Amino acid sequence: MRFDEAYSGNVFIKSHPDFAESEAVIYGMPMDWTVSYRPGSRFGPARIREVSIGLEEYSPYLDRELGEVKYFDAGDIPLPFGNAQRSLDMIEDFVDKILAADKFPLGIGGEHLVSWPVIKAVYKKYPDLAVIHMDAHTDLREQYEGEPLSHATPIRKVAELIGPTNVFSFGIRSGTKEEFQWAKDNGMYIAKFEVLEPLREVLPKLAGRPVYVTIDIDVLDPAHAPGTGTVDAGGITSKELLAAIHEIAKSNIRVVGADLVEVAPIYDHSEQTANTASKLIREMILGWVQKRNA
After folding, report:
1. Known binder of ligand: residue 218?
2. What's the average pLDDT block by block, 10 residues per block, for the chain (294 residues)?
3. How far apart are CA 261 and CA 228, in angstroms?
4. 3-class DSSP state for residue 50?
5. Binding residue per annotation — 137?
6. Is 269 annotated in some ligand binding site?
7. Which residues contact 284 (CB under 8 A, 6 or more apart)?
8. Cβ contacts of residue 276 below 8 Å, gap of 6+?
9. Quick one: 24-293 is in which CATH superfamily?
10. Is residue 18 a known part of a binding site?
11. Residue 128 is assigned to a ligand binding site
């Protein structure tokens, strides 16, 4: 599969058929090879696309329609089942090509480890990169049960690559004591439990900088997103997460890429989680792709 060929399955609503003319590229990363609790997020990208047909194309939050942004749906990267390292290498190569074509990469996971190769690729293009991370979990372990390639390790890898002071985590409510201590000792920003208010305080400090945003759907309380692999009580509401996306949209940062991960449709028979994810992606497209090209 080439990175610029048309996707033959379901596409995200209002996707543009031509890669060359598009400003952004949506792509799926259907990998859940390293999860430590409940697998199933590899089915997230396809289901989010399928339910997107129920979206309104107009965002009353941003007063924009999806037809105002050209984005190409490249489909799912055909990752080799069970081979974590090769999968990560394929993701990085895929995103390298998107960035070389000067497109905005918008990934859909998949477990959170898939964000690691994407951020590696983005960092090569933007060496002054900062990362905004919204999640229930710190994801700062060096390894999980002896395995460094784990959904519990991506933010630690990112912090070691771009520098801990360039990583800003929000909504965190779960992690080992050692993870929180490592962040404190190394100057990494962690906002426990909340997203919106601490985000408002941080965004002015990132003005003008290229920023990558990674959102784990489990930053939401399980009442709002039960369809995820590692649910964790005490999260934020979907209204708050939408407000955070809009806060970023109206800020002076340069969003240069983003992803939404950890939707596992099998655990949510109401499809509430996938539908929420598709709406979040709509707002990310309308808010952030515009910011990049402004």
Report:
1. yes
2. 64 95 97 95 98 97 96 96 97 98 97 98 98 98 93 98 98 98 98 98 97 98 97 98 98 97 97 98 95 58
3. 9
4. helix
5. yes
6. no
7. 106, 213, 245, 258, 260
8. 217, 220, 224, 225, 238
9. Ureohydrolase domain (3.40.800.10)
10. no
11. no
Query: Rounded distance, CA 285 to CA 288, Å?
Result: 6
Beta-sheet strands, E only, within 103-240: 104-109, 130-134, 167-172, 189-192, 210-216
List the chain domain ranges: 24-293
Give the strands of the sheet with 210-216, arranged side by side: 71-76, 24-29, 104-109, 254-261, 210-216, 130-134, 167-172, 189-192
Other C-beta atoms lying within 10 Å of the C-beta of residue 64: 19
User: Shortest CA distance to 44 belongs to which of 35, 22, 36?
Assistant: 35
Q: Which residue has the tokens 């959904």?
A: 151
Separation CA 54–CA 81 (nearest Å):
30
Place of tokens 């080439």: 2
